[in-house]
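Structure ticket #2291
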Amino acid sequence: MLMVRGTEAPAVPARGSRWRPYDFLPLDLFKKLHDVWRVDSEERPQFIIRTVEDHHVGYPRLGAYVDSDPNWNIYRRFGYLRNRSMLHKQAELASLEVKLQKLDDRDSKLAPEVLTSREQDDNQKDPRRKFLLKDIEATLKSYDDMLFRSQATLAMRKPSDRNVTSYWNEILNTTSLIEPEQEFILHKEDLVTLAGDQEDNWLNAFVERMMIRTCRRLTQVIFTTSEQKRKSTDPNIRYYSKSRLDYLIRTIITLIATAACMTPVFVLTSIRTDQNMKNLVALAFTFVFATLYTLFTHAKRHEVLTATAA
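Resolution: structure written out below.
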C-alpha cells in the first residue's frame, strides 16, 4: 500500500475569488503518484531536448517548432504545379507517339524489312527509330516518376483544422516569417501532414479541447512526459504524450462500448410482455451501435455492415 506523508489539503479560495472545479484536486498527490511510476531520474540519461525558444526568430525557430511534434509536420502538396508538369509531360509523350507512328507508316511502304528486325533497323544509315525510342524511354521514366510521386502525395492525409490553427498561431505570435511567406499555411486544400498514423476523429478533438480548458498543472502531470516539458517555455504551447492520450481515449471508448452492449440487455429484461416494444428497442440499439462504430473508427462501409450484422 502506498502512503504519502505530509500531503496537505489545498487552501480554500478566499471569499470573492473565482472558484474553479479543480481547486480542491490534490495536485501534489497526483505528482507524487506519477513520480512513483517513473523510472528514477538518476537511472536515466539526461536526454538532449531541442527547446523551441532557444532558436532565433524566423525559419530557425519555426523549424524547431515543427520538429517538436509530429502533428505540426504540415506542408503544401503543390497539386497545381504537379498536375501542370504531368500534363506537359503527357503532351510530350503524345507527340513522340505520333512521330513513332508516322515513322512506322513510312517504313512499312519503303522498307518493311526494318519493322521485322531490330538489327536491320539499327544498322540503317539514319536510325531514327532507335534514337526516337531512346527519347520515349527517357520521357516515360520521368513521367512514371511524376505519377508515382503524385500518387504518394495524394495518399497523404490532410491535417486537422486544430493543428493548422496551432501552426498559424505560432507564426503570428512569433512573427517567424515575413507576410508573403506566411501564406503557405492558408492553402488549406493543398496541405498534407506527414503524421499519417495520427488518429483524427471527433473524440480525439473533444478530449484535446477539454484538456486545454482544464488545469494546466493537472494535465501536464498526467499527460506530458518530462522530455516534452523541456521542448518549450511558452505557456501557450502544450505537448501531450500520444500513448497516454491513447490510453485515455481507449478507456472512454471501452466504457461507451460496454454501455452500448449492456443497456439493451437491461432494457429488454425489464420488458416482459410487449413483443413490439422489444423489437423496437433492439432496432434502436442496433442503430446506435452502428452509429458509434462509424464515429469512433475509420471503418469502411462494408466493415460497418459486417459488424452490425454480427
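Closing remark: The beta strands are 74-76, 191-193.
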